[in-house]
Amino acid sequence: xxxxxxxxxxxWLSGWFRPAPPARYxxxxxxxxxxxxxxxxxxxxxxxxxxxxxxxxxxxxxxCGRRIELMLLPKVKPRWDIRESQNERPTLWPSIWANDxxxxxxxxxxxxxxxxxx
Length: 118
Ligand SMILES: [Zn+2]
Known about the structure:
- The radius of gyration is 19 Å and the shape is elongated.
- It is mostly beta strands.
- Strands 1-2-3-4 form a four-stranded mixed β-sheet, with no helix packed on it. Strands 5-6-7-8 form a four-stranded antiparallel β-sheet, with no helix packed on it.
- The protein has one helix at residues 2-17, and strands at 26-31, 43-49, 52-59, 67-71, 81-84, 90-97, 105-109, 112-115.
- Strand 6 (90-97) and strand 7 (105-109) form a beta hairpin.
- Zinc ion (ZN) binds at residues 60, 62, 64, 66, 98, 102, 104.
């Protein structure tokens, strides 16, 4: 009786402490030719000027806290494309690869992080 109650409490606690599923990235724009010094967590901030998208910034989804900046201008290399889905979630391509530090490699599709297994 007590045992089953404890099991139930433990089951409930394990659910409580289970890591939350990764939150989806939101999309925000700033009218500037540069990204803000602080980028909110789980947000892709896009710098645009006169309708032209310059760059996108986000905080690495692995939790390392690094700032990732991606160029969106058509004539630079490397560059990324960004698309806004109907529910205002960002999709970026190609995949994003941190070539130092945490070495995260992931896709961002409709605000969801899809990790690449390297
Ligand atoms: Zn990272």
